[in-house]
Amino acid sequence: MPIPKNISFVTFDVYGTLIDWETGIYEAFAEEAGRDGVEIDRHVLIPLFHEISSEIEGGSYELYAEVLRRTAIEIAKRIGWALEPSRSGFLPDSVQRWRPFRETNAQLQKLAKKHKLGLLSNIDDKLLGQTRRHIPIDFDLVVTAQQVRSYKPEPAHFVECARRMGGKRGWVHVASSYYHDVVPCVKQRVPVIWVNRSKEKLEASQRKPTAEASNLKEAAKLLGVS
What we know:
226 residues, globular, 6 strands, 10 helices, alpha/beta
């Protein structure tokens, strides 16, 4: 699906796309583990986080705060850190400190002057509210995992978004996760810009996004904003 000539709505994934959550996650683990004299290797932690949290999200629905607590406990087990389960709340408690990428707010403010904007996120409403304090614009539409009781890459976010918009005409989605966002967008024929910050390479068998950008500034140019 090409980027439509007349864009009416731009939606964004939040964590990894607008918010530098990997840094936030690492800092939260490093601080908590440091209390026990345990050092955290970011290059080990982040792949483990993505693997374990995705496995948990694939089960029966529960609030993202609980997904984060369970993920923290399992990561600690895997790396040999004797974390008491009662302390696992350090990870959802850290969400309020996860910061936007440097270009996020400037690009959103530019885009908001030209298009309606929305958020589609694998999070619960309370934690997203904490994040939105770092983003000084209003959004025209917000769909969370809590609202649809499902986690991307399942289609519920996208189905609900299309329902609220009254259809898919003029819609473009912007996201950093190939697995959680690009794949379902391609399946549902929603144009998607992949913000590939980590320069991930696709295999020949993987379906390509509509367009690819290395950051939000490049994505904004593809949406007609410079």
